[in-house]
Please model this.
Amino acid sequence: MTKIISAFAIGVVFGTGILIAGMADPAKVLNFFDIAGTWDPSLAFVMGGALLVTAIGYRLVWVQKAPLLGTAFQLPTASDLDTRLIGGSAVFGIGWGLSGFCPGGLVPALGLGMVEPLVTASAILAGMVVAKSAKSALDRGRAPAAT
Amino acid sequence: MTDFTPFLSFLGGTLIGLAVVSLMLVHGRIAGISGILGGLLSKPNSDEWAWRAAFVAGMIVSPIVLHAATGSLTKITIPVSYPALLVGGFLVGIGVSFGSGCTSGHGVCGLSRFSARSMVATGTFMITAMATVFATRHIFGG
Model:
C-alpha cells in the first residue's frame, strides 16, 4: 500500500511539473520545434531544470544500497546503438512533431477534461499494441530455433 | 505565438527532476512514461502493474491538484487536426516501443545517467520532430 501511495504522490509531482513547464501544451511544444517560424525556446529550460536536478539527485540516491521500498535499483542494461533504437526514436520524433504530444506531456493533459488528449492517447496505445506484436513477430523470425 | 516562459519552464523542469529522483529513491525505477504506460498493457496481476497504475493516476489528477492549489486550470491549445493527432499518436506509440523510451526515459533519465543509447535516441527524436514541424509548417502548410 505504501508503494501505491508513494507512486501516486510522485505521479502528481511529475504531472504538476509537466503542466507548469508547458510540456502538456502542444502549441508550446510545436513552437519549440519551429525554429524557422514562431520559435519558443522555453522547453530548453524544462530540460535544463530536469537534467540539473536528476543528474545530481541520481548520484546522491545511488550512494544508498537499495531504494527505500525495494531490493535493488533497476537500471537499463542494453548498450547497443541498434536499428530499433534509432529507427524507433526517429518515428517517435515524427509522431511528436505531428501531434505535439509526447507520452509524458499527454498523460497530465488527460485530466483537463478535453477530447483531443483522449483521442491521442488511444492512438498511442494502439501504436504500442501493434508494436508489441510486431516486435514479437520479428523476434520469432530472428531466432526460429529458439523454441 | 506562445509566450516565452523561461522561469516557469525551469521551475516545472526542476519539479519533473524531483519526481524522477524520488521514483529512483523510493522505488528504484526509471521514470520513463512510455515504459510505464507500456507496462500497463501487460496483465494487471502484479505489484509492478499497481505502482505503474498509481503513478499514471497521479499524473492524470495533477491538473486538478494544481487547479486547487493555484485557483486556475492549466490552459492548453491544440493547433493540429484530429488526423494529425491520430497519425501522430500512432507513430508515437510505435516509435517509443521500438526506441525503448521517450522524452522522459531517454531525454531526462537516460541523459542524466550519461547513457550513450539515450543520447543517440534523444538527438534522433529531436531532429525528426524539428524536421516534421518544418515540413508541416513551412513546406506543405502555411
Q: What stands out?
A: Helices of chain A lie at 2-21, 26-33, 42-61, 83-99, 103-109, 115-142. Residues 2-146 of chain A form one domain.
